[in-house]
TrEMBL record:
PROSITE patterns: FEMABX (PS51191). Belongs to the FemABX family. Pfam families: FemAB. It comes from Anaerolinea thermophila. This is FemAB family protein.
């Protein structure tokens, strides 16, 4: 139904978030003939301060709303309703980060394309006093591979070094297998090692096991493990909705890196997705600034080598019906996040040791 569905807008994702402190709600918009034109899963969370005198309620639409079409009338009714919804719920703000593309390709390159519908939607947000958010929850940009061509064409579209490393991994005995729920704890251990090595924060083990087990049990996810010398050295999770797949979690150890296991791991995951009928393979994440100083530059170069196209979206935007509280929230949030991240980093280090 939707040209660009997303697994973060599924009932299953709402179930996970509900277990971890959010409420979920759903809105569906129809045209005059009763046809669905847009939909959104809205997450809601509240926090009380000053002994309950101040209640801060926030709303978040992860990778939504979803649109069947981007006509002006559709955009208007959706934004009107979401703004009214935020007022009715007495929310400090509502955040959305729909996967609405504004540009394709690298900035300044000859083949850079513009999506006028995405530009128009962004202009709507500005006119309605939505703010480009300082708190971008998901990656704003990504790299997407079209899996429709034959396998030999997919390989030909990759950079020469990437093809070489895939074959190198095969020659050096790296093997790829589909993972099962019994492997999920091992995958979390590798993910924890990855996060400490690369300097990002992850949640507790239970959270990831819940996500992985739920989506796998509904045939909406598949994990893969790369092994070298009989040892698990890398892994990844793919999520599926319709003909789209997302490489959402990746993990690895420092062992046997010279065997290039991650290259063969991605290639086998792509082949699996293609055989499943997937035509769009999202590598999930690209730099905000396309320059070597960006923290994602290294992993972006790896993704580029796989032959994908850069997609740049509008990012996350906030609308606040309670602007003073929104201002206070913006001042307090960095302090809260800084404290919780510091505590979580300590816990992660203890868990690893």
């Amino acid at each position: 139904m939707f040209p660009q569905p997303h697994f973060l807008q599924t009932w299953e994702w709402g179930e996970i978030k509900q277990k971890y402190g959010w409420e979920k709600d759903f809105k569906v918009w129809h045209d005059g003939d009763g046809n669905v034109i847009a939909a959104a899963m809205i997450l809601m969370r509240s926090a009380r301060f000053l002994k309950g005198l101040v209640n801060l309620r926030i709303l978040y639409i992860p990778r939504g709303p979803l649109f069947v079409n981007m006509e002006a009338s559709t955009r208007k009714v959706v934004l009107d309703d979401l703004q009214e919804y935020a007022r009715t719920k007495k929310a400090v703000f509502i955040k959305m980060d729909p996967e609405i593309i504004i540009y394709e390709g690298m900035p300044g390159e000859a083949d850079e394309g513009t999506n006028q519908a995405g530009i128009a939607f962004q202009e709507d947000l500005k006119k309605r006093k939505w703010f480009f958010s300082s708190d971008q929850i998901q990656f704003r940009n990504t790299v997407v591979i079209n899996l429709e061509p034959p396998e030999e064409d997919l390989l030909a579209a990759m950079k020469q070094k990437t093809r070489y490393n895939i074959r190198l991994a095969e020659r050096r005995g790296v093997s790829i297998r589909q993972a099962h729920p019994a492997d999920f704890s091992l995958l979390y251990d590798m993910y924890l090692e990855t996060s400490l090595r690369d300097g990002f924060i992850i949640r507790e083990r239970e959270y990831y096991l819940d996500v992985w087990e739920l989506f796998t049990s509904h045939a909406m996810a598949q994990a893969f493990i790369a092994e070298a010398e009989g040892e698990a050295v890398a892994g990844l999770f793919l999520f599926f909705v319709g003909k789209q797949a997302w490489y959402f979690y990746g993990m690895s150890t420092d062992r046997y890196k010279e065997k290039m296991p991650n290259y063969l791991l991605q290639w086998e995951a792509m082949r699996f997705a293609k055989n499943r009928g997937v035509i769009s393979y999202d590598l999930w994440g690209a730099p905000d600034a396309f320059e070597p100083s960006d923290r994602l530059w290294g992993v972006f170069r790896f993704k580029q080598g796989l032959g994908g196209t850069v997609q740049r979206t509008i990012g996350a935007w906030d609308y606040s019906p309670r602007k003073f509280l929104y201002f206070l929230y913006q001042q307090v949030l960095p302090k809260i996040l800084g404290f919780t991240r510091k505590q979580r980093r300590k816990a992660m280090s203890g868990e690893m040791s």
